[in-house]
Amino acid sequence: MAKVLMKGNEAIGAAGIKAGCKYFFGYPITPQNELPEFMSKELPKVDGVFVQAESEVAAINMIYGGAGTGERVMTSSSSPGIALKQEGISYIAGAELPCVIVNISRGGPGLGGIQPSQADYFQSTRGGGNGDYRLPVYAPASIQEAVDLVIEAFDVADYYRNPVMVIGDGMIGQMMEPVEFNEPEKKRELPVKDWATTGTEGKRKPNIINSLALDPAELEKHNIKLQAKYDEMEEKEVRYEAYKLEEAEVVLVAYGMTSRIVKNAMDILEKEGIKTGLIRPITLWPFPNKAFNEIPDTAKALLSVEMSMGQMIDDVKIANNGKLPVEFYGRAGGMIPTPEEIVNKVKEILGGGK
Amino acid sequence: MATEKIIMAGFGGQGVMSMGQLLTYSGMLENKHVSWLPSYGPEMRGGTANCSVIVSDNLIGSPIITDDATTALVMNLPSLVKFENNIKSGGKLLINSSLIEKKAERDDVDAYYVPANEIANEIGNSRVANMVMLGAYLELTKLVSVDSVIEAFKKVYGAGKEHLIPLNKDALERGATAVRG
Description:
The complex is a heterodimer of chains A (354) and B (181). With 354 residues, chain A is of the alpha/beta class. Chain A is built from eleven helices and 14 strands. In chain A, 51% of the residues are buried. Chain B is an alpha/beta fold and 181 residues long. Chain B is built from six helices and six strands, in the order E-H-E-E-E-H-E-E-H-H-H-H. The longest helix of chain B is centred in the C-terminal third of the chain and has 16 residues, at 165-180. Chain B is globular, with a radius of gyration of 15 Å. The two termini of chain B are 22 Å apart. The interface between A and B is medium-sized, with 23 and 18 residues.
């Protein structure tokens, strides 16, 4: 299919429909509004339904219900709206239902601002909901990657019967880039949804979808079963890009749009004879710990670059396991780091700089 | 052309976002790497609007333009004040002289004064001032062909707006003439 120029928010919506999403429940918030707007226009054309709920809490519970029917469902919001959805996400994870949740994030805490931010790293990877649950979190760095990952996210959700999150900062939502909607490669054999509540027609026992288990022994059994699933995700679903690691003196770690700014900084440093590499987590959870095994002996330090006050750096430290000094550079509140700032930080680490 | 980084700015309603999208789409049609990044905020009609367009032979890293713009197209005075310093030395500055009396302050960039609104009014529609400016820019840089812009226009605005193509073509041409010198 030919390339089209699309805004990130619209492309993410189109990818959802391409993946077979028929039902979208959401509530408006900047900077993701073009996504529900697109769905409200396009879903009726494919016999789907768009509902603007009365709140984010309502929307995520509609997702809970919709997912229970076995249909592909999706919701989107931005940071404080995703905070409101956390309870529902925990319930959906507990009830083992598939769905895709998109966070086009903005500065916080609280209502914060509307400019791009990556301050929801903890929220998405640690979860704001209660209980032992995990969800895969994909962080695209381009609109094409956002499209590809949204399509894959629906398969991952169905395969594991688990909510999956796709997170992009406001820039991913607002910018336009060329995209192609290719037929996705089939990576997983998806199980039949025999658990869905679609009516028994008197032929089978009713399916019950619930996240309540008052018997502690039963609940522990459920926790162990869920954990086995999360272990499998950690083993099979890790995605990352290792870029120019050979002979790197400093290895930068950055995801999403920040990784592209880092690449610009790396180009500047290369021209000045300073070799740097980049580990770009594509899955924030499961975090690509194994990528850190590829770091060469030439590396003197790691540098986590984020649009936050320092959140992913915790995972970088875990993955690094004490081997190298771990440094941080970040901007917050909707401010975006410049390549020059990152260049200066790298030079400072190497003992030069201004 | 290696990499062109263009800032387009004006007030809401002057068509700076559309102008950027057309240029981006045209670049894509010519198989170049492109990105379009809008400013977004609580701005409303009449407020400021700007977008950053990158068109390159190579893969684009960050879509953000900081102080390395190769060109800035400014449609009103606040945009000139805001973005003059984002142009790299040797870059271009296109000023809509219909609305901006002030001259460029920097002497290390090439400034061009295009009376975009006057030209647009002459050809009968003040709303194509953006296309006049785009025409001037394309004449100076030959970044993409006018044919590609028209092709992009059809794709972006659809069949319903095809009757506006002659007007827009005219605007591009008049803009080009204005800087041909």
